[in-house]
């Protein structure tokens, strides 16, 4: 990879950055327009990430952070762990952004005093003074998001350096989630879930899950990063799936903000959705810069750092934005891939170090990769596998020896399953097809959430 920017690229990035700086300076009026500032910051974050990936690629290779692209004729080595650049630029961006959402509270309303009153309108004077207080709780949730993300990025970089065992790294995001869960507890503390209308006669309208709700949120923090990391192995798929989820979450925020009734006092659902947009916009900015270099044919790899970082951004947005169930609706392909992978993850079926599709050098196409059975599976397992392989749309493909014993079976990822169903295809085509499927599932999920929710729930939390 050329390690410098071309003239045209340098000029475009410079122009973009200058325009974004101009926009940010212009937002210091009135309420500060944090959303526009966030958009401009995302542009700058994109330009920085793009340039740094180019400049630091060789440095990363020298430090040993490199990987072999296994699905190419020439298995060249390219820089890995480029997600670390995204994560660092992202963290710095949202740190610099801290004053912006609070500009109104710091400058316009409280003049830096935190609770100095603003000029009161007459109708309020009649009924007593209302002090405008600085929203410390909002700041706390923003800061806890940064803290949780930083911890998980540390884990990601550690994993890229030392290849931490799967069973060890699985639970680390749960620890990283503690700052955010504490803020949730102090600030919001709702552990009730609304019961679907159909189950109300048995359970009542609400069920209090208590501490189980915290376990559920910790599980989300574990699931999101890991599920992105195991839906991987072809160029571009990790970043692209994250960008798709990022845009779907943005759409969800916009739909929710749009639906919130306009009233003098802001609707309670407004703030979490704005908060979520402030975190998502720069995420999409840094991810597009990475995508540019990681799409087929990849010039860099994202590394586990990116997968953990991306997953944690989604977990944080979902938990602190109070829409974790909607979040899961946008993770349907990842959930299916996780469940489908479970037999290999829990070693019921042998799990090789890599499960990515196999590159056939003769055709240049990807084929399902196989895992070898050292000794044939036990009778019941063999029976089950043959049953799954016998479906009209088989869930697994088996290779048998002369005696009819299973010696090989396909690795259980939806990438391989797609190849079993639709036949060998080129790497980028496989990625595009999976992304279209993912986007379709996501849009369906949003439709269910925003249009059909009233079939199951008495009230939409927008209303
Ligand atoms: C996860 C998967 C593993 C898959 C790997 C690929 C599980 C339990 N683990 O492991 O099966 O093989 O991701 O990312 O499902 N690579 C390519 N082309 C790509 C992307 C990656 O050849 O487009 C190879 C490169 O050699 C790269 C390596 O995969 O160096 C990165 O693998 P890593 O992310 O460390 O694997 P895991 O996340 O542990
Ligand atoms: Mg990985």
Automatic annotation (TrEMBL):
Keyword terms, alphabetized: Endoplasmic reticulum, Glycosyltransferase, Magnesium, Membrane, Metal-binding, Transferase, Transmembrane, Transmembrane helix
Keyword set includes Membrane: yes
One Gene Ontology CC term in the entry: endoplasmic reticulum membrane
UniProt GO molecular function: glycosyltransferase activity; metal ion binding; UDP-N-acetylglucosamine-dolichyl-phosphate N-acetylglucosaminephosphotransferase activity
UniProt-annotated location(s): Endoplasmic reticulum membrane
EC main group: transferase
InterPro entries noted in UniProt: Glycosyl_transferase_4, GPT
Pathway(s) this gene product operates in, as recorded in its UniProt entry: Protein modification; protein glycosylation
Main localisation: endoplasmic reticulum
Described purpose of this protein according to its UniProt entry: UDP-N-acetylglucosamine--dolichyl-phosphate N-acetylglucosaminephosphotransferase that operates in the biosynthetic pathway of dolichol-linked oligosaccharides, the glycan precursors employed in protein asparagine (N)-glycosylation. The assembly of dolichol-linked oligosaccharides begins on the cytosolic side of the endoplasmic reticulum membrane and finishes in its lumen. The sequential addition of sugars to dolichol pyrophosphate produces dolichol-linked oligosaccharides containing fourteen sugars, including two GlcNAcs, nine mannoses and three glucoses.
Protein name in the entry: UDP-N-acetylglucosamine--dolichyl-phosphate N-acetylglucosaminephosphotransferase
Lineage: Eukaryota, Fungi, Dikarya, Ascomycota, Pezizomycotina
């Amino acid at each position: 990879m050329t390690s410098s920017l071309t003239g045209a690229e340098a000029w475009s990035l410079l122009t973009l950055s200058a325009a974004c700086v101009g926009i940010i300076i212009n937002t210091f009026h009135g309420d500060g327009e944090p959303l526009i500032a966030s958009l401009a910051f995302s542009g700058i974050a994109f330009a920085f990430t793009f340039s740094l990936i180019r400049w630091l690629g060789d440095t990363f290779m020298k430090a040993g952070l490199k990987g072999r692209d296994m699905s190419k004729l020439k298995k060249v080595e390219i820089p890995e762990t480029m997600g670390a650049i995204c994560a660092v630029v992202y963290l710095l961006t949202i740190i610099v952004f801290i004053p912006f959402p609070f500009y109104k509270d710091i400058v316009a309303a409280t003049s830096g005093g935190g609770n100095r009153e603003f000029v009161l309108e007459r109708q309020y004077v009649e009924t007593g003074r209302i002090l405008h207080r600085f929203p410390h709780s909002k700041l706390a949730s923003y800061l806890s998001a940064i803290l949780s993300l930083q911890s998980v990025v540390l884990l990601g970089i550690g994993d890229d350096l030392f290849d931490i065992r799967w069973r060890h790294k699985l639970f680390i995001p749960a620890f990283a989630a503690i700052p955010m869960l504490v803020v949730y507890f102090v600030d919001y503390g709702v552990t009730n879930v609304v019961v679907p209308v159909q189950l109300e006669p048995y359970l009542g309208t609400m069920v209090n899950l208590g501490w189980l709700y915290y376990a559920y949120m910790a599980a989300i923090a574990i699931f999101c990063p890991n599920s992105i990391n195991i839906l991987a192995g072809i160029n571009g798929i990790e970043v692209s799936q994250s960008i798709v989820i990022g845009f779907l979450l943005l759409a969800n925020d916009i739909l929710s903000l749009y639906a919130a009734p306009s009233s003098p006092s802001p609707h309670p659902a407004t703030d979490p959705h704005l908060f979520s947009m402030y975190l998502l916009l720069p995420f999409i900015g840094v991810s597009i810069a990475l995508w540019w270099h990681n799409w087929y044919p990849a010039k860099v790899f994202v590394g586990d750092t990116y997968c953990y970082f991306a997953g944690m951004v989604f977990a944080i947005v979902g938990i602190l934005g109070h829409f974790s169930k909607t979040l899961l609706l946008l993770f349907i392909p990842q959930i299916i891939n996780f469940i489908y992978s479970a037999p290999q993850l829990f070693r019921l079926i042998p799990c090789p170090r890599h499960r990515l599709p196999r590159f056939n050098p003769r055709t240049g196409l990807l084929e399902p990769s196989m895992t070898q059975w050292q000794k044939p599976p036990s009778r019941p397992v063999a029976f089950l596998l043959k049953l799954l392989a016998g479906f009209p749309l088989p869930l697994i493909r088996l290779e048998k020896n002369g005696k009819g014993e299973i010696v090989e079976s396909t690795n259980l990822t939806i990438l391989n399953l797609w190849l079993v169903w639709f036949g060998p295809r080129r790497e980028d085509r496989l990625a595009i097809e999976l992304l279209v499927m993912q986007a379709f599932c996501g849009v369906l999920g949003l439709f269910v959430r925003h249009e059909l929710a009233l079939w199951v729930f008495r009230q939409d939390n927008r209303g």
